[in-house]
Amino acid sequence: MIWFLPLIVIGWLWYPMLGYLAVTFMASLSVLSYFKKRYWCWNLCPRGAFLDIVMAKATLNNPVPRFFTHPWFRWSVLWLFMTLLILRLVQSGGYLLRIGAVFASLCLTTTLIAVVLGIATKPRAWCTFCPMGTLQEKIGSRAACLSNKQACCSGDPALAKRRETSCNRFQEYP
Prior knowledge:
Layout lengths: L3 H8 L7 H18 L2 H5 L2 H8 L17 H21 L4 H25 L10 H17 L1 H6 L2 H15 L3
Helix pairs in contact: 1-6, 2-6, 2-7, 5-7
């Protein structure tokens, strides 16, 4: 999957419609997260593979700031990016090429942020507050509650521990 990242972040300069690949990934991982939470992040994400393979060689390996994992920060980043995305889509005027460019440029922007953070801290620092990861976690947690509503609502300690373990797997990386 790693080859999708350069295809989108570089290729869109010549063919903006490649931005629709980013939309496809976003939609697919949202559906997948209903069943597998953040499975995408660790197993299929092209940016994650890039960060693991390339950035691991260029990192300073400093600790990731703890506030990156705080819910308020993660949700703030998600809302910031969603707001920017909506504003840019409105500005596109509905033109298909411009819409593709919006998604591709967003992919490029988040990749540049990931690279800078990967060099300054750990390779996957971006992943601790990635907007799509935050959304996946919420969808997956909601799905778990819907599938086992009584245990979720009653505060079943075993279920709470299982949810906490699967969510913290990602937060423990730094």
